[in-house]
Structures are given as structure tokens and as C-alpha cells.
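[Automated response] Your request has been received and processed.

Submitted sequence:
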Amino acid sequence: MTKRTLLERIKKRRKAQLALELEIIEDMFKDSEDLLRVKSDATLSSNQRLQALKQLEMWPRIVGEMYGCQLPIAQNNQNENGLPEYGREEPSETAREEVAEAIGLGPDRVRDLWREGQSHFKEGQWHKPKKNVAEFKLELSTTLSKNDAAKFREGISRRKQQMLSAAMERFSIGETS
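Generated structure:
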């Protein structure tokens, strides 16, 4: 058994780090590609599309961003209309209930998904489109056109290539983080 030199051990460790980083990038973009399939499949009903979205790893980010878009709307409604007659419901509760109704889950589950989505963002995962409840419902009932799907696919491909290139560049100059 031969001992590896320090340089050989460093190279081995850097290759392992690069392999892990490339795997993470592939996983991130697999979810985006799955999202594109859901959005562009004309055979899916709104309910089937919703169920398919719930299976995506990015589902907590989708819900969290929808809640984030709905919260200012609820705050604005309360500022304009005053407190509701039935109690002192906070805008955050109103927003959670509206999101919950749109996705067929309870408000507590929306809060849990929002928290999970926040941890995804802290880990560096992303999801670009932000939609309020009305926009989300409209999107569920709409199929992405072939032209828009092609643009979406190009954007995914371009972003993925940028991230892969950046990882390879870091590997080639010796950066590991």
C-alpha cells in the first residue's frame, strides 16, 4: 500500500467536493425540469397539476412565495377595510387561510411549508416565479404554450450551464467553497 502525497490527497478531496457540487446542481435543475413538464402538459386537469406540484421538492418554496405575495395583499385589504367583523384576525392569518384554500391544505400546513421553504432558501435553493393566490389559481388552469415552454427550457439550460461552469472554474483554480 502506497502512501498518497499531500497533493494527491488534496486533489482527491477536491474531486469529491466537485462531484458533490455537480450532483446538487443536477438535483436543483431536475426539479425545474419537472415543474416545466407539469406546466406544459395539456392533458393535466387543474387538480392533477396541483397534485403533481405537491410532489416537487420545490413545493415548500412555491407555497412560501405564494404566502409572501399574499401577505401584503391581506395587509392592504385590512388597511383599506379595517378589521373584520368576526374578530381580530391578523393579515398573516388571512394570507395563510387564502393560500390554504387555494392548495387544499390547512393554514397550519401552509405555515409549516413556509418555514420549510425558508430553510431551502437559506441552503441556497431557488425558485424564481412569485405568484399570489389569484395568479396561482389561474396558472393551475392554464397550460404553458410551446413557445413559453421553450423559453423556460432555454432559461433553465442557461442557468444550469452557468452554475456548472462556475463549479468547474472553482475546481480548476482550487477554490472549494
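Summary generated for your ticket: The radius of gyration is 21 Å. Residues 21 and 167 are 7 Å apart (CA to CA).
If you did not submit this request, please reply to this message.
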